[in-house]
UniProtKB/TrEMBL annotation, chains A, B, C, D, E, F:
Its cofactor is Mn(2+). It comes from Shimia aestuarii. This is Guanidinopropionase. Belongs to the arginase family. Agmatinase subfamily. Mn(2+) binds at H130, D152, H154, D156, D244, D246. CDD domains: Agmatinase_PAH (cd11592). It holds the Pfam family Arginase. PROSITE patterns: ARGINASE_1, ARGINASE_2. GO terms for molecular function: agmatinase activity; metal ion binding. Binds 2 manganese ions per subunit. One of its GO terms (biological process) is putrescine biosynthetic process from arginine, via agmatine. It comes from the Bacteria.
Amino acid sequence: MTDSFFHPVSGMDLPRFAGIPSFMRLPVLGLDDARRKDVDIGLIGVPWDSGTTNRPGPRHGPRQLRDASTMIRAENGATGVRPFELVNCADLGDVGPNPADIQDSMARITAFYSDVRAQGITPLTAGGDHLTSLPVLRALAADAPLGMVHFDSHTDLFHSYFGGTMYTHGTPFRRAVEEGLLDPKRVVQIGIRGTQYDSEDQDFAKSVGIRVIKIEEYFARGLDDVMAEAREIVGTAPTYLSYDIDFVDPTFAPGTGTPEVGGPNSFEALQVVRALEGVNFVGADLVEVSPPFDSSGGTAFLGVSIMFEMLCIMANAISAKT
Amino acid sequence: MTDSFFHPVSGMDLPRFAGIPSFMRLPVLGLDDARRKDVDIGLIGVPWDSGTTNRPGPRHGPRQLRDASTMIRAENGATGVRPFELVNCADLGDVGPNPADIQDSMARITAFYSDVRAQGITPLTAGGDHLTSLPVLRALAADAPLGMVHFDSHTDLFHSYFGGTMYTHGTPFRRAVEEGLLDPKRVVQIGIRGTQYDSEDQDFAKSVGIRVIKIEEYFARGLDDVMAEAREIVGTAPTYLSYDIDFVDPTFAPGTGTPEVGGPNSFEALQVVRALEGVNFVGADLVEVSPPFDSSGGTAFLGVSIMFEMLCIMANAISAKT
Amino acid sequence: MTDSFFHPVSGMDLPRFAGIPSFMRLPVLGLDDARRKDVDIGLIGVPWDSGTTNRPGPRHGPRQLRDASTMIRAENGATGVRPFELVNCADLGDVGPNPADIQDSMARITAFYSDVRAQGITPLTAGGDHLTSLPVLRALAADAPLGMVHFDSHTDLFHSYFGGTMYTHGTPFRRAVEEGLLDPKRVVQIGIRGTQYDSEDQDFAKSVGIRVIKIEEYFARGLDDVMAEAREIVGTAPTYLSYDIDFVDPTFAPGTGTPEVGGPNSFEALQVVRALEGVNFVGADLVEVSPPFDSSGGTAFLGVSIMFEMLCIMANAISAKT
Amino acid sequence: MTDSFFHPVSGMDLPRFAGIPSFMRLPVLGLDDARRKDVDIGLIGVPWDSGTTNRPGPRHGPRQLRDASTMIRAENGATGVRPFELVNCADLGDVGPNPADIQDSMARITAFYSDVRAQGITPLTAGGDHLTSLPVLRALAADAPLGMVHFDSHTDLFHSYFGGTMYTHGTPFRRAVEEGLLDPKRVVQIGIRGTQYDSEDQDFAKSVGIRVIKIEEYFARGLDDVMAEAREIVGTAPTYLSYDIDFVDPTFAPGTGTPEVGGPNSFEALQVVRALEGVNFVGADLVEVSPPFDSSGGTAFLGVSIMFEMLCIMANAISAKT
Amino acid sequence: MTDSFFHPVSGMDLPRFAGIPSFMRLPVLGLDDARRKDVDIGLIGVPWDSGTTNRPGPRHGPRQLRDASTMIRAENGATGVRPFELVNCADLGDVGPNPADIQDSMARITAFYSDVRAQGITPLTAGGDHLTSLPVLRALAADAPLGMVHFDSHTDLFHSYFGGTMYTHGTPFRRAVEEGLLDPKRVVQIGIRGTQYDSEDQDFAKSVGIRVIKIEEYFARGLDDVMAEAREIVGTAPTYLSYDIDFVDPTFAPGTGTPEVGGPNSFEALQVVRALEGVNFVGADLVEVSPPFDSSGGTAFLGVSIMFEMLCIMANAISAKT
Amino acid sequence: MTDSFFHPVSGMDLPRFAGIPSFMRLPVLGLDDARRKDVDIGLIGVPWDSGTTNRPGPRHGPRQLRDASTMIRAENGATGVRPFELVNCADLGDVGPNPADIQDSMARITAFYSDVRAQGITPLTAGGDHLTSLPVLRALAADAPLGMVHFDSHTDLFHSYFGGTMYTHGTPFRRAVEEGLLDPKRVVQIGIRGTQYDSEDQDFAKSVGIRVIKIEEYFARGLDDVMAEAREIVGTAPTYLSYDIDFVDPTFAPGTGTPEVGGPNSFEALQVVRALEGVNFVGADLVEVSPPFDSSGGTAFLGVSIMFEMLCIMANAISAKT
């Protein structure tokens, strides 16, 4: 049993609409807080969307995700896991970006996550647009390339936009492969769909060995079969989990900037994470939640429900090691 | 053929956006109306949400459900049933609650339904939050405990909240079992999911013999199999039907206070009711529709579509008896 | 390869939120534009809803569909088709209706489409309410009756409304059969559901040989089987494709005036069109998108995604002929 | 003191969100109700917008105005008038329009109001678009032309639209003058503003003697001075009051189809009616409330607040006569 | 200059959309935090609306007010006051209410504020509905009755609702006078308007000497004159400031449960507070902000702008004493 | 009389909801269009918000402003000016920004406007955030510094943000003064208000001679007096007009990223522009309209109403010269 300092406030004690909204009602530990040394999993916000080429908004994601997360309770109803009793979890606050300078922002993010990693904390990130994953990977893959399970409707493997712009939310994993942060043979992308400019991204994927599973294949084979292949691809070595909310059908997750119709529903949105039980994750993110396009707040609530599933499998894995 | 006084106004005669919105465009019969004696099924609103522990709003439910119900026509497209020609239906108005006094409100509701029952009318209720079911059951189960088919994402079987508060929308069926209003062996709860504080509610269910079917089991076995079991559990004795709109996935029914992602879609939302054809229902409710969280009105429209399915099976059953 | 004049502006060059929104960022060709003679498929808006008996709004459809269509890219991710490289496509603008005169509006629409047909252009229409299809068919079926694949939750085969009103969005295909514009033996209607006034429309369908596939049959048999039957019904002769957005479940397409719960999801919304590959379509429409009820814009985006699927199969067919 | 049958339900007894929403919680009297003979002022809905040339929606006005009107209490806080104790008021229901036939709808409206007039009831109308006023005037001015106080941002005096269409919401008062329903010398229009096509309407006004007070003059002279002139223009002879909600600034009344910025605020919206105390009104309307553009419901609430002010001055006048 | 620990985070350092939203980005001090002893002004949330007789929602107020308050900067642009440099301010968190028990909730609130008072902290409260003021006054006026400046469109002086219910948001100040918490001769209510059930509340006001300034008088005399009278009424003795957001016109503050049209605009909403410079306030509240009815968030932003004005005059006063 | 090619489409001919939305329904002339040489005033969109430090969105401004502008008719109702008959106006399309590169975007904007200026066209710009004005001024003030009338609630004169970032929407006019694009002695800023970090911006204004008129002064002196001073400050030399929509109170203009409560209403929003009749404007912009925060579209409609007033005074001035 973990230290009660790290337990969320219960809605049985304080109603869930009350109190300052930290992630899952966990304690908030600032950069210099001494109790950070006891944290196993740290929930971190990256309120940043400067890489967005289309409709901005994910900079508001962390705050809305925190708000919605006060609806999360202590136990996973489907699996029975009680993560906050398995490992010490905390809200580590937000990385402060520079909204008008992409390079400066990436440097700040990498520095923050390098600290987190040095403290032995496994990060669970709430973005932010998908470019967020790149500076995070620079910290987490500093020593060796990682595998990755990637849920998305886009590959985010393009070379550049607008005549040579290299850092956008459509390019992070191209850069990550080029920089040696990802081992492309251990990367699987699931849910890809929608109209495309061309297939330059998928040609690149093929050339380096990234496995792309389009939505038609996903539906035809079924979730269980696809996820079994995903587990096999990443194997037992250290792996990153990146989940773009636009993997989910935009009816279930309208609050995002580049939706593509015809995706999985909310039950599958959770099930795909549960199917990754046992994978050796060194970090995870949930990105592209865009509150200005989420008038009902349903996207944020689905987003934190997915984050809770991530947290459960990560807590189980960490707990199993100790 | 029923008395044309009890037939809804047709949209072919008066456009559906016109006219004062009664339930399904039926005549409205006040407490003292002599024609109440001819009514078989009475639609009743309970605009009340004082039992809500989280986000209020269901007090506005009956009005919005009435408004949406003007879209309902005379015939069930799937089953061909024309309920208003089988039995006399009427809108019996709203029970007037006391928004600042829970016990007073419950007394008012029980008194209203005792009258309705004394008049030989089968009530079909539009809530209100789920605490509504308790004072209704006190009237309907005054003589003997009832069975119940209960669609929901929560069991509503908790003992108490906030340090001993016994009457909230999380406790009605715990009270109903304690008060002998429900026969727990003839109660089935379908669709349970989401995060939980603990399993105190489910421990209670197990201890008294209530059958809980979680959403994972529901999806794994399929609707037909689950509903066959439900029919078997309640058998042929008098039974109550309680339908919390949060049984349905929140994308299909966002207008509710305590949503849980990963539920059934709107087609199944109707099909589960159709699968209860022939059950001996003495009353039914549709609760927890919360207009402040239903910006498009889609939840209310789904709610009345479910109520129409309830009405069809109840009309069939009553009509078969006579 | 087609003339680059007819290629959409790429989002890689000009961000998709920039620029004046024509359909799919295609060039706009006015009535007198000489380049119309080179157009193979013309996208046309009919901003008109005077036939609406319930909630108006589709007059605003074309503008919102154009706006949403700027999210469409060059290639179909599922099928690999690049329609703008197969045939010359253009935005032919809107037909100007007379909002206060139904007959005048129908005459204007028929005149516009007669011109389009005379120019050898295959029209792809964005409505407008469903009465739009009637004046369009008057132009396209001027020589011989057409077959029709019709996706909808209503048959639109009623005789009249409000005591004898013959032209509403509930009557277009009754008129079209009466006027000899459709060959009823080659008409199939898919997705019919919801409550109904009576079965006068379906009795008519039966009497003239129109095949009606209700949603329960659709779900029971599955998409592939149903669509195979649909292809067989229309055969190889000239056929019209009419797609009412309310075919789709209202959760996926809330922006419409007469929704019916319990319909297909967005993936199937696209798949049913893909399943019509090879049919000899001489025109198609997507109708009943109603922006005032589409607060998130998701209905319009789904609508143009469906239009893009239509465009792909039409482009393939035209391209195959030449 | 009036008959308590005609008193509204008090929110002290039944909460204001409860109960079926009739106008101001008054009793509803159908066409054949014998108690109509005791009614002094009848509130009537005309859910119709077929005359709308731009954005439709006012057909939904009466229902939303009824809903909002349940917030109205018994006494005017500013003037102390308690209208329901001065005269018998009732909700006379809606006129059923034919949404697809303008002439048929106008005939239905005139017939309904002719009956009302024959019963000695003074009508207070909730529209509907502004064309509604024409068929109402045909009933009320059957014997002699009326004066009119008209609040609006448009004159609605145009000859025709779209090449000769004579009946739209931009032409009712041109027709009314031509048909001898209004005495132009006793007509004043207040609040006119916004961009215009041309001055054909104002040229007509000048030619027949209608007084047009533009918003710039209104603000420059002040409300008291302007309203004194208005009272003088209409004098003591029978007069009609027509209030287009777009008289008010669209920030205060966004729910309307043809807003013009730069109008009066909500305090003045009420004050201008209070300033008409004592005028000999034989009928009044509040038109162009369009719920699809009134997401917060604020326009409807302002609309019924204006209707209550109208009711107070009309009740005072009727009461003074008896 | 105050301790920098108590300074808000600057938006020049961390963007205003980033970080966990405490009131005005101040440090959060829990019940047991030792630094509470250094606090001069404590901002407190009371997420509670069980006293609401009409449309609920203010329980969500404190969270949304905190979110909006991250837009507040260090200096008052109009007066030049920099409150955080004058006195130590902190966010003291929320009082945890019991949503299903009014008496229990009131006891919890009074206990919380008694502690705050004992610690020498001046409380600035974000409600909650207006019943909140009663348990707060029970703590602050424990020794002697207070004066009060009260902005509102309702007097909240009613005796009871629904047949004898004594504790609702329409009765707090009746109770407060009865309990000796307020000195009625030193109470002024400003902005009263709208329809009313009767004048029982105002008769009571008159009988005990409370000064009621209706909106018509307010507009006729002007803000400066009215506020001079208000300052004179409360004098120099300890006074409470209670500000119901529905004082402001509902167009400027739609997010509230019982709006009344025809109120002051947002500039005046601030000016009335500035006009109270120098009054001896021992506490203040801003109540009835209801996020479910505040779709744009503008009401919350106006609410915190008003709170900042309150903070400035309170900081000046406290600073002047020391 | 101008060439009819440059006249807007009339709503009397084509309903205003129909047709592709160009600015004020004017013809669209691409970069290479030969008819550009005949244009006097060019309306240009700059869909760009990379300088936004808080809530993004203005990149969507031009499209929504074009949509709303289809409500604008031919004649100014207040002044009688018919601008499209005085000078040739056209929609010159959008400048294509690079959303992920601020310097590249500024270079593109300056190049576009340099061309426009070389063609002798006076530009009227729809932003975009306020950084837009800087690259526009670089083109327009290439030869000599300009005067400026600046409506805003912020001075936008800050030195830098986030530790040295020089180009944000809070810094454009600091840069413009530094670069010699503005003559500070001929610059007046009107409407400044809200909380502030510090007075570094206003200290700079004072040091270089920029006149800052805060909102309190504006209201105290009145519009006429303030605007007379403004005209005097800029005199007869070439002047730029920059209008941030947040000058207006956020209730009237909620769709913006950094609102400040307590500003002018919509009538004044137009009047301040009319008061600048006769000033020698060489260009003008309307910036910071942010559709994601403008759910009703009212901000965009107010924005284009302001743009039309700008157009009228510019057309008058140009017409007077020729």
